[in-house]
Design brief:
Elements (H helix, E strand, L loop, with lengths): L2 E2 L4 E4 L5 H13 L11 H8 L1 H6 L3 E7 L5 E8 L17 E9 L8 H15 L4 E6 L4 H9 L3 E2 L5 E3 L2 E9 L4
Parallel strand pairs: 5-6
Antiparallel strand pairs: 1-2, 2-3, 3-4, 4-5, 6-9, 7-9, 8-9
Helix pairs in contact: 1-2
Length: about 180
């Protein structure tokens, strides 16, 4: 279950990579303009850093993109069963869907298509699993991710919107049953 591109490979995260990947996630999210800092939302950043706990949940796979030397370039959480989605709002009640969470790309890999490749990889996982759609959440602070999602055909799914610690979180879905 690995996909290779000229510059990277996408595969499940390995246990010895959890700490480094957690640091990558914290750095990527803390670097977003307008994003609350780790000091302002310590629980959120602790969740980002704790890859092992997320991987231990049923139906969750953390996929990573690595370069030829094994350096972590980015990651995404793929959730095969929405009851294990692990976020606010009504997403855990969505039937026949797979979920995506916590897309992150390292500073050195931005602009190379790694984020888009991770999302496409997960869409294919959902398709192979027979899911009808893929759902996710994002915020206005996550401009690059928002652009990727819309470019791939995701549309707003307002029924999934919620607020987290004072900022708006927006739901999106991609219908893959007809594709």
């Amino acid at each position: 279950m690995a996909l290779s591109a000229p510059d990277w490979t996408i595969r499940p995260c390995k246990a010895h990579e959890y700490a480094a990947l957690g640091k990558l996630l914290v750095s990527a999210y803390a670097g977003l303009p307008g994003m609350p800092t780790p000091q302002q939302q310590p629980d959120y950043y602790a969740m980002l850093a704790d890859v092992g706990t997320r991987v231990a949940r049923p139906s969750v796979t953390v996929f990573v993109a690595t370069d030829e030397a094994g350096q972590l370039l980015g990651s995404i959480d793929y959730i095969d069963d929405m009851t294990h989605y692990g976020s606010g709002g009504t997403a855990p009640t969505i039937a026949d869907a797979a979920g995506l969470r916590l897309l992150a790309v390292s500073d050195v890999a931005r602009g190379r298509g790694v984020g888009k490749a991770l999302v496409l990889f997960c869409i294919e996982q959902a398709r192979r699993a027979g899911k009808a759609r893929v759902v996710l959440h994002t915020t206005k602070m996550m401009r690059a991710a928002w652009k990727i999602y819309e470019g791939l055909g995701f549309v707003r799914f307002p029924e999934l919107d919620f607020q987290q610690s004072g900022f708006d979180v927006f739901g999106f879905q991609l219908d893959i049953a007809q594709r």
